[in-house]
Every structure is written in C-alpha cells, then in structure tokens.
Amino acid sequence: MMSNFYEPRSRCFLITVSKEEVDALTNMFKDLGKANPSRPEKLERTQVREQLHVQFGVTDDIILDRIVRVFDLDSDNYVNLSEWLQGLSVFLKGTYEEKKQFCFKVYDLNDDGFITREEIFNLLKSSMTKLQTEEDPDEGIKELLEITIKRMDADKDGKISRDDFSEAVDADILYLEHFGSCLPEPKDVEAFLKVAATYPPYRATYY
Prior knowledge:
This protein has ten helices and four strands, in the order H-H-E-H-H-E-H-H-E-H-H-E-H-H. It is mainly α.
C-alpha cells in the first residue's frame, strides 16, 4: 500500500487552500460523483485523470497515472473527498516542501522509496518521445540518465532517494520536474479554481 505522506500536514490543510476554495472543490467533487450513482462518495480514477488532462493539459500517460495514484492514498482505485481535497491542496497550492514530496512520489513508480535507473529511463523516455528525431532515441536517453544519476545521486548507491532528490532540487529548482511535468502552471491553477467555483453548492452529507 502506498505510504500516506499527507498525514503529518493534514492539520494545516487550510493554510494553502482557503475555506472558499475547499467549498468549491467539494461542490465540484460531488457534482462529478453524480456520474457514479452506486458510489457517489468516490470518483473513479479515470474521472480524476480526465480532469487532470482537460483542466491542466497533462498528457503523459505515466505521469497521469502516477498523480492519480498519489491522490489515492488508500490504494482502493477510487479517490474519495478527503483524498481529492488533500491531493489538490498540494497539487494546486502546495508549499515548496510539499511539492518536493509530491513530485518524488510521482516519480517513484513502484512506491519503494527510491527512483531507480529503470524508473528514470521510463520517465525520460515517456516525456521525451515526442521530441526525439534520432534513429536510436534510447541512446540519448541513456546518456541523460547517466548525467542525471551523477548529479542527483548524492550517496552514490545507483538510485535516487528522497534525500537525494530533495538536495538536488534545493541546489537547482529545475530538478523538481526533471523527469516530467507533474505540477500545474499558475494560470491553470487560477482557471481551475474559477471552474470549481461555478459548481452549485450541495449540503454536506458524506465525506
């Protein structure tokens, strides 16, 4: 089961997301939940994927899947209201430290606490495929992988730990999304919250 790294920060949830924004996101969740009459208190992963794709332009299949999996804290293949709000609080308005944790979790494809060479290769290949014009694009990716490991693997164990990732990002912010874009642009955050604010209010009957 995926570890719940949101727990330590749950008490300060409203620091980065206002009450009005929480209400709007709740209304949006409940409206989307109407598509699942037998389970309106949860969203299908595909519904969350669609929102990420349509509202934020996330097109990389690996990144899309991983963001949804990070949202799905109990790994039940659904996103409930609490997971929706907690996930979006970091995705939309997370602190610097929260964003580092979030991106690491997205890139840690098998949830073992490390970003391995194989994971780096798959992430880079997925994000760079459309840009490749070489006959053997894998060679270019392998070269970038080796450069990345050399610069980010502080303890030289051949993989990137949470601490390695954090230190690399602290030294150069460009490493935050080095393996694929998984955070929204400010203009997209503003647009999404405006869309959420248009959903009609519902009486709170489930969480």
